[in-house]
Amino acid sequence: MDRAVEGEVVRLLHRDAGRRELEALRDRLARLPDGEDKARALETLSMGLTVKDRLEQHQQRERGLMAVIETAQDLTRIVDIDEVLRLIVRRARALLGCDVGYLSVYDPERRDFYVRATDGAFSERFCRIRVGLDTGVCGYVARHRSPYSSSDYSGDGRFHHSRFIDDAMRGEHIASILGVPLLSADEVSGVLFVGDRYVRAYTAWEISILSTLGAQASVAIGNARLFEQARDALARAGATNELLSRQTADTRAAAEAHEQLTALVARGGDLPDVCAMLARRLGGRVAVCDEGGREIAAANGERGVEEPVEEGRWIEDAAYAALAESRRTGRSVAYRKSRTVCAVVGGEGPLGGLVLQTAEPLGEVAARIFERGAMVTGVVLLLQAQRTLSLVSDAPAVLHGLVHGPGGRSERFAQQAEKYGVDIHRPMRLLVVRAGRDGCAYLCRQLRDRLGASGALFDDVGDSLVVLANAARMEQARAAVQACLRRHRGAFSGVVSGVVDHPNGLSASFERAGRCLDLLDALGRQGELFDESRLALYVPLFNRADAAAIDGFFTATLGRLYAGAAAHEARRTVLAGTLLAYLDCGYNAAEAARSLSLHINTLRQRLEAIDGLLEGWRDAGRALEIHVALRLWRLRDPLRFAAPDEPAAAPGQRRQP
Fold first, then answer.
1. By C-alpha distance, which of 147, 150, 137, 143 is closest to 207?
2. CA torsion sign, 11 to 17 to 21 to 22?
3. Same domain for 400 and 540?
4. Range of the domain at 33
5. CATH (domain of 148)
């Protein structure tokens, strides 16, 4: 029997039978009768069981070694840190034969541990566990930097329990647990756990192999952090290189634009050339406007230079307001999503501006190119003004000498004036426009473009534009001034003097024109060019009079026809116009009725109504005074007070930009 038992034991060991089969053999032998054969058989079987245990230990160590080797290979082969950690947890669970495995990683920002990899867990709540340094098995292992095992998790009082964590562990039915620290230098980077849903004790070898896997997990986490730092550093380096490349390209683009603009000016380029180059470079429509807001040159990036419009094209009010802001700041100003302006300044004041319309807002480099384009535009405008002034360099001196010079000394200007098409030995006329200092400077530049250096002498004198031309050419000069005034945004008033036969009379004519303008200011009349003859009667009577004095004259002369609570109602104006027509017609009622297209009886009824408002108007001594007052009233209020020989025109009525 002894040899038979030995043979059976060897056969079982040879085919790697389980321990249960060997123990079944021992049960059979135990039922045999006692004797030496039975004792020897049991001893042989005991030795077989010892060999079996040693073989299982060797196999277990071999599996542990293979797990460690495979994990080490994973550290070098797998880039995804989460995948490496999941494999470590899965191997730890399989190697120790546990129900659950998981790994918690330390979060330095929140100063706690969170579950990053699990295997065998089915509760979502379990995967959301976060543990502080002073809580649970995780906190205990992290504080003591050593492994920890418990065969009764819920009843273990060696660590501080948390209700949330205990509920999550009960949800997974975990009874036994083993945790080892993940040490990195002097820090704990995490904790590797295995757990079982039954009461179990963990051997020293199991703790050792789990610690080895934990060390590899620590290496994986450290490598991942180093990899993330290297990746972030590489991304920052890439972003820095991209920024440097972009800045280099932007600098090159700005330098090229500046070089092209400089070369354009150097070879005598004009405004359309500047607009065309900027339009191509910036990809949009670029226009140059003068200080009044009228476009004088424009180009499109696709269609090139645009043909100029005869009367000019006015920029929108928003662009005009943005130009004022640009003059204040010295930089370009975006006034809409895709529209930008930049003031052009040079000499003693503003010269105009650049207006850009693009599909997208300008970037920083494009804005700088646009601003440099405005500087070049200013240079071109100054060069054009210099060329124009070189043609008329002595015109201001000649004009000032003729208008303000002492009598008898004008002959010395005769030859110079003739160069500009003005013969001072023939009848002349003056045109004086009051539009403010900036407005007159603008009008003077516009007039140079229209008249050039022939046909008239003109210049801005104080707050007025003065034009001197022979009487035969004054209508041409007047038309040119009116064309410029139609482009002028500000208020103005102007007077054309009577004929001056000798240059010695120009000074007096200029003074009379100034008094006429003062009267127009007192009357509030703007926006027209008046002939001096229309104002000659009133200037001596109302010299130095202001608006209040003139209003007092109307009240004193016309009484209730002008003054009172209902003074300016339509009925009063109609009666005043009827009376003026009656006086203009020399008290001829029939002729006055025809001039007003009225029936004679209607005219007489109106005159009777006037008798009730203006007593004594029929007296011969008052007729002239009343007649003058009515004519002056009509001159002040042409819209409300129209006469048959003067069609109503709105004060300041002109082409609006």
1. 147
2. positive
3. yes
4. 2-62
5. 3.30.450.40
Whose structure tokens read 């470079």? 281
Torsion of CA 68, 69, 72, 78, to 10 degrees: -110
DSSP 8-state class, residue 265:
H
Task: Say whether both 377 and 405 belong to one domain.
Answer: no
Q: How many domains does the chain have?
A: 5
Q: Which residues contact 247 (CB under 8 A, 6 or more apart)?
A: none
Is-contact 457 416, C-beta < 8 A?
no
Are 473 and 535 in a shared domain? yes
Which segments of 529-586 does DSSP mark as H helices, in order?
532-535, 538-541, 547-558, 570-584
Which of these three, 170, 204, 229, is where a domain ends? Answer: 229
For residues 505 and 552, membership in a common domain is answered with no
pTM over 0.85: no
The sign of the CA dihedral 61, 67, 70, 74 is negative
Task: Tell me if residue 410 falls in helix, strand or coil.
Answer: helix
Contact present, 184 and 216 (Cβ < 8 Å): no
- Looking at 514, 545, 576, the residue that finishes a domain is 545
Mean pLDDT by 10 residues, the chain (657 residues): 61 66 67 65 69 64 59 57 83 86 90 91 85 90 91 90 89 92 83 92 85 80 75 81 70 72 74 86 87 82 74 76 87 86 79 86 83 84 69 71 70 78 89 83 77 75 86 88 79 91 88 91 89 89 87 87 66 86 89 90 90 85 87 84 44 34
If asked whether residues 12 and 50 sit together in one domain, one would say yes
